[in-house]
Write a structure and sequence with these properties.
This protein has 382 residues and is α/β, with parallel strands linked by helices. The chain contains 14 helices and twelve strands. Helices cover 45% and strands 18% of the residues. α3 crosses α5. The protein is elongated. The mean pLDDT is 93.
């Protein structure tokens, strides 16, 4: 935590020492700018400290301000780095118009205003995008008989992050989107709640979740954020509101197909207890039945394929959530977002429904995914 705060402070100091140059030395506006800047910077840190100890409307306001500032900080730092690169080459090549350099303070002031406007537009566009999820549909063939069932409709969401930012209204919207196709199953691939359960309880978000409707059932797994906030209370809360949590187990549903759910990969780090290997979860699974697996973090896809899983659903990556972090997630994960097939196994990694940190998405749009599975005709064994 100390390292994170140190990096956060250094990045903001870098932005500050560049931005303050747009104001004349000794001017009153320079003093007011400095005070306002560091108040904005401190909002995120104060919110993290107070959100559990003193949950209230003031803390929630700090959370919103602090999380929005993270987005502004990102794009301000990118803009300042680009300006410093330009300044570096200008020092040697002198390619900028002479008039810009003759009145350098005015140039800095105009640059400051332009950057603030552009970053504000970018963050606003990202906020609007994050508030407008889409429905994505996939039609997949499963090369196994459905044992009396020819088709299965699954409504799936991941990374909802219910809490101070994703509130009851967004939960109601999610419920409506998941219920719309009248699914047989509703599946949540982890990170349903965002670390701290207190805002979820205070806003009574569970009441909205009770509106979920699926012909066969509603199932979920833990994500890393359930473990960050304490997996036990989060699991208890979700199960009390109609969601069955699968924790390193596989169940046969209606004698037609299996659903398997893994504990989050970060369980050992937060609980000190190991999660089961996938081979152990699958050891009693009859592979003549279709197998649907939920694993929050999409690592080691080949293992699931080798063990006979037919469909794996994951989340976690947010596909970076905000450009340019999507390039980082693409480098880390074999599949950062979307669909992939390995052998006979279908994989889908959702970019998620909610947001972590800034309520902003750029480079991807939040989603609910509807899967239409068609099983092999039982009379056709080939």
């Amino acid at each position: 935590m100390t390292f994170v705060v140190a990096v956060y402070t250094l990045v903001n100091y870098y932005i500050f020492i560049r931005a303050i140059q747009a104001f004349p030395p000794g001017s009153v506006i320079r003093i007011w700018f400095a005070a306002a800047f560091w108040l904005l910077v401190s909002a995120f840190v104060l919110a993290r400290i107070l959100e559990r100890a003193y949950p209230c409307h003031f803390t929630e306001a700090l959370t919103w301000i602090g999380n929005f500032w993270l987005a502004f900080m990102l794009f301000f730092s990118i803009a300042v780095m680009m300006l410093d690169i330009i300044r570096f080459f200008e020092h040697f090549l002198h390619f900028l118009p002479g008039a810009w350099m003759d009145n350098y303070l005015l140039t800095k002031q105009v640059t400051f205003i332009v950057i603030v406007i552009l970053v504000s537009i970018t963050v606003t566009a990202g906020y609007i995008n994050a508030r407008n999820p889409r429905v994505k549909e996939l039609f997949l063939e499963i090369n196994k008989p459905g044992h009396g069932r020819s088709e299965l409709t699954i409504a799936m969401a991941s990374d909802i992050h219910l809490g101070s930012i994703i509130r009851k209204a967004k939960a109601r919207e999610l419920v409506k989107m998941l219920n719309a196709p009248k699914p047989d199953l509703i599946l949540f691939a982890g990170d349903i709640v965002d670390e701290d359960l207190a805002p979820v309880i205070r806003d009574n978000i569970g009441e909205a979740l009770c509106g979920l409707k699926a012909g066969i059932g509603i199932f979920a797994i833990t994500g890393n954020h359930e473990y960050i906030g304490g997996a036990g209370p989060a699991v208890d809360y979700l199960e009390k509101h109609g969601i069955r949590m699968l924790r390193d187990t596989a169940i046969l549903v209606n004698d037609q197909f299996y659903i398997a759910g893994r504990e989050d990969r970060d369980k050992p780090r937060f609980s000190g207890k190991p999660r089961k290997e996938l081979s152990e979860i699958m050891k009693d699974v009859d592979l003549s039945y279709p197998v649907i697996l939920m694993d929050h973090q999409p690592f080691n896809l080949g293992t699931a394929a080798s063990l006979g899983v037919d469909l794996q659903l994951s989340g976690h990556t947010h596909n970076g959530q905000i450009w340019p972090f999507n390039y980082i997630t693409r480098a880390i994960y074999e599949l950062s977002w979307g669909y992939k097939k390995i052998g006979n196994t279908h994989f889908y990694v959702s970019c998620g429904y909610g947001t972590w940190g800034p309520p902003v998405r750029l480079g991807n749009r939040p989603e609910v995914v509807i899967f239409h599975l068609r099983f092999r005709n039982e009379q056709n064994k080939s």
